[in-house]
Amino acid sequence: MKEYIVKIKTLTPLWTGNAECKIENIRETGIIGSLRWWYEALVRGLGGTACDPTKDKKTYEGDKHCAVCELFGCTGWARKFRLEIEEGDKKIVPDLRVGARQDTQNRRFRTCAGIMSDNITLKFIPLRKVEDVEWWLLRKTIEIIESYGALGGRAAQGNGVIEVHKNAKEENNLFKQQFRTFHKLVKENLAEQSKCTNKTQAVPNLNPLFFMDFQIGFKKTISDLINQNVFWTKRSWIESKKGWNDLWDNYSVLPIAFHIRDAIKRCYENNDKRHSIFGKPGQGSRVFVSHGYKVKDDTVKIRVFGFGDEELMNIIRSKINNKEELSSKLFTGNTYDLIKNITMNNAKTGEELINEIKGAVPE
């Protein structure tokens, strides 16, 4: 294949910020790092092994790499492709700050920021031969991100939900035929347990993940609710209203990831267990919640995914489906009776997703 082109639209802001936590453009390193994470998760979920290049100390001999390093590169082995990014009609979303409910000293704020664009082009250009199975795995990785996950950074803070343009999702028989080849790849490149094999468990893998989508319908249009100053911000609404209106009117984004997290993270009384799942300062979250993205004028969809079992899925489902509890986090004052309905559109485990991928490929 000469090159592989994917065109995407952002549904929530895309974040690939720099060391100063500022974003001016879409950084190639941020996209490649995110793609690699999901690619690793897919490879492991399908039964292969992949190293952790940030931890393993490796001395390579010849072509002894795991399947992920083979495509994405590692010390002593260059990446097989170059990624070119065209940002399209890029708009930088101004920082919008939302305070934490439990912060009595008014010190903690979460920020909604990033890049929105209806037409971002990702162009994967081979630098040397990319095997058909590697193209297949890369394409499937992007499909999983679109349908279940997030691209780029700050996924736990609502960023990174994308939609792939239809012309980039058209079926390609070459890709459909490559799943059988993956088992050969496992045998030759992965199961060998080469010097870059990582023995730890704290690595990306689709199997222990879960994925859920919810739709929240309100009793009024979202524009009306914003203009009536009902959403929680913990800041002066005069300061915040313009930002909320801008996000909704121009980008169809409702910045409620922080509110949803507040609703679900108190599901365990034990602080250590809660922090192990939802994170704390210096420790990342294992559950990721998107901002709301527009379905229609009074309805948004949110995405929740992460590491956890069916017990955690059931707890999150019950928390989000509880109108009173969710309203107490979404809205300020006594304006709680504003949710019309909450619907869970989709819920599946990573194991179920892997089985679907396997089942969709002809023998």
Could you give a short description of this structure?
The chain has 363 residues and is α+β, with helices and mostly antiparallel strands. The protein has 13 helices and twelve strands.
Secondary-structure topology with pairs:
Elements: E1 4-10, H1 28-45, H2 67-72, E2 81-86, E3 91-99, E4 109-116, E5 120-126, H3 132-148, E6 162-164, H4 166-169, H5 173-176, H6 179-190, E7 209-218, H7 222-227, H8 237-251, E8 253-254, H9 257-264, H10 271-278, E9 287-289, E10 292-296, E11 299-307, H11 310-321, H12 323-330, E12 339-349, H13 350-359
Assign the CATH architecture of the largest domain: 2-Layer Sandwich
Figure out the total of helices: 13
Beta strands, count: 12
Q: Which percent band covers the strand fraction?
A: 15-25%
Using the coordinates above, name the CATH class of the largest domain.
Alpha Beta
Please give the share of residues in helix.
25-40%
Oligomer state of the chains in this structure: single chain
Overall pLDDT? 83
Domain module tally: 2
CATH topology of the largest domain: Alpha-Beta Plaits
